[in-house]
Amino acid sequence: MSTTAVAPLTTEDAELLVATARRAAEDAGVTVSVTVLDAGGHLLAFRRDDRAVLISGETSTRKAYTALQLNAPTADLVDAVQPGGLFHTLPTALDRPLLFIAGGVPVHRDGRLIGAIGVGGGAPEQDHGFATVAVAALA
User: Fold this and answer.
1) Residues 6 or more apart whose Cβ sits within 8 Å of residue 134
2) Average pLDDT value for residue range 44-70
3) N or C, which end of the chain is more exposed by having fewer CB within 10 Å?
4) If you compute the radius of gyration of the chain from its CA atoms, what whole number of angstroms results?
C-alpha cells in the first residue's frame, strides 16, 4: 500500500495567513489577533496588535484549536452546540476549551487537514471573513 505525502503547513504559509488576515482586517478598519496552528495543534504563527482587546489573542488561539480539532469552520459549528445539536454534550475536558464562535477555519492541502487559522477581535462574521480570505491566499 502506498501513501501520498502531503506537504505540511510551513512557517512561510503561516506567515502568509497572518499577513493576509491582518491586511483584510485593516482594510475593514478592524484590529485583530491571528493565530495559526499546524496539524498537531502547535503554534506556527501569532500576531496580536497592541490596539486589540487583550483577550483577542486567547480567542484567536481557541478558535484555531476548535477548527483544527473538529476539522470545520467554527462558523459552521455554532448551531451544533445548541441544545439538541450534534455537539451539545461534547466533553470540554480537552487540552484547551473549544470555542464555537465564527473566526476559526481549518487549512487543507490536497484534501487533507494541515492546520488551522483563528482570528479574533472583530465581530464573529468579520473574523470568519478575514480567516477565509487568508486561507484562500494559500490556494
Assistant:
1) 16, 17, 18, 20, 21, 24, 34, 105, 117, 119
2) 83
3) N
4) 14
Q: How confident is the model at residue 89 (pLDDT cuts 50, 70, 90)?
A: low
**DSSP letter assigned to residue 52:** S
C-alpha distance from residue 72 to each of 31, 51, 69, 75, 103 (Å)? 24, 29, 8, 8, 11
pLDDT above 90 for 14: yes
Residue 11: which of 47, 46, 44, 38 has the closest Cα?
A: 44
Residue 80 CA: distances (Å) to CA of 60, 74, 112, 116:
20, 10, 23, 19
Beta carbons of 30 and 126 less than 8 angstroms apart: yes
Helices (H) and strands (E) in the chain, counts: 3, 4
CB 79 within 8 Å of CB 72: no
Cell of 80: 451544533
Handedness of CA 36, 19, 73, 33 (dihedral sign): positive
Kindly provide the b/e burial profile for residues 104-118, where b requires at least 16 CB atoms within 10 angstroms of the residue's own CB.
bbbbbbeeeebbbbb
